[in-house]
Amino acid sequence: MNDLPRVLGIDISKSSISACLLTDKPTEPRQFYYNYDFKLFKADASGIKGVLDLKPDVAILEPTGTNYSKLWVTILAQSGVEVRLVGHKELRNYRAYHLALPDKDDNADALALACYGFDYSSPARYVALKDATTARIRELVLRLKHLNRVKNPISNRLRQDLAWQFPEAAHIKSRRGAKGKVPLLWGWLCGKRSSKRYDRMYLDSVGLGLLDTVRLHAQRLCSISDEEFAIECEIKKLLEDSKFLPYRKAFNSFGFGLRLEAIILSQIYPLQKFLGEDGKPIVQFIKSKGSKKSTKRKLSLRKFQKLLGLAPSKEYSGDKRLNKVTGGNDFTRIAMWQWVFTTIEPKRNRLNNVIGKKLGKKLDEEKASGRPIRLIRSRVAAQGVKLLFTELVKYVVYNDRLE
Question: What is the average pLDDT score of the chain?
């Protein structure tokens, strides 16, 4: 990654961007900030033309979600501009401590991003761009997350109405059928599926009768179910890519479902980004204070845990020592907690393999000690991520030895 003379810092908002073009780094960034004519471009044809007319060689921006940044990243890349992404934390520290810029605003961020390109050229200083397949998987899992948020309040409202219109069906759990058929209860309510059972129940119901609002809610839930099924089919097809095969072999030992596989894969692929230049996990030995012994630090594992949101951070203050989980991806952290809740915690569902037994034993011992259940699930999830990294290294790094 070589420095090129025209570096464009871009701070992205919902419908516009603030841009700062530099051909070299200003010696007095703070003074430059007050005098520079920052450009504001809207997300329309004239705004895109304005950005491209600046003829940048490199565009640097923050990874602001998949929606706001996607348009600009795609157009810049298609126009031959090298796109680099800077992490939010890295930019915040750089702007405050290296440039001493005023309080955060769009223009200050745009200037900081442009300056960052002159100070750092190593790929390690930037967020790796996802390949097209992995980026698409991430878009799809985020879409599923959105649909889940949308359908929950609709389902809750529908059940509240059923409590007086058709109370016998108000608490029935209805799941999607084979080959993507909409859930039977919702399908019956809106006329998309037939059911003699619900016909009989409704005939003998003590409820006051179904209204059109319930049928409309059920129709909405059926539409969401159809969209979820279509997304899951696309995810399944994408996961069949041969490059993901060793990853999915590792996932098999954990009993991950399709969605969890996609969520984790969209974050960790390729595994090489966690490894050293030799393609192996990075391990450092640091001498302990006041002792001849060395402490082993597994840096690759730590980075892996951090990205998935399950790396405890230590805070020391006097005699007070705290371990807490901070940073990382909330989506993957919650998904791993749910996996513990459904696959490890219930003994009847527990995985019947080494990983299931190891995590199950830890969970049972933690419960017996009387610790809070939320803390227990968090600890078991963190242990699960450690085991996952070990399995991934085995299949991805040393795969040729296993064939």
Answer: 90
How many C-beta atoms lie closer than 10 Å to residue 173's C-beta? Answer: 6
Distance from C-alpha of 164 to C-alpha of 154, rounded to nearest angstrom: 17
Contact present, 13 and 106 (Cβ < 8 Å):
yes
Classify residue 281 by its DSSP letter: B
Task: Return the number of other C-beta atoms located less than 10 Å from residue 338's C-beta.
Answer: 14
CA-nearest of 374, 329, 340, 372 to 65 is: 329
Residue position matching structure tokens 């599926």? 193
**Residue 388, CB-side half-sphere exposure with 13 Å CA sphere:** 26
What band does 65 get if pLDDT is binned at 50, 70 and 90?
low
Contact 23, 142 (CB under 8 A): no
Neighbours of 384 (CB within 10 A): 23
Residues 6+ apart with CB under 8 A from 222: 182, 183, 186, 187, 190, 192
Helix (H) or strand (E) holding 61: strand 58-61
- pTM value is 0.83
The dihedral sign for the CA sequence 228, 229, 230, 231: positive
pLDDT at 287: 74
At 311, give phi and psi (nearest 5°).
-110, 110
User: Which three-class secondary structure state does DSSP give residue 17?
Assistant: strand
Nearest residue to 378 (alpha-carbon basis) of 331, 341, 327: 341
pLDDT in tens, 122-172: 888 998 888 889 989 999 999 999 999 999 999 999 999 999 999 999 999
Decide the pairing of beta strands 82-85 and 58-61.
parallel
How far, in Å, CA of 268 to CA of 307, rounded? 8
Q: CA torsion, points 69, 74, 75, 80, in degrees to nearest 10? A: 130
Contacts of 197 (CB under 8 A, 6+ apart): none
Six-digit token string for 123:
């790929």
Both tokens assigned to 235: 């995810």
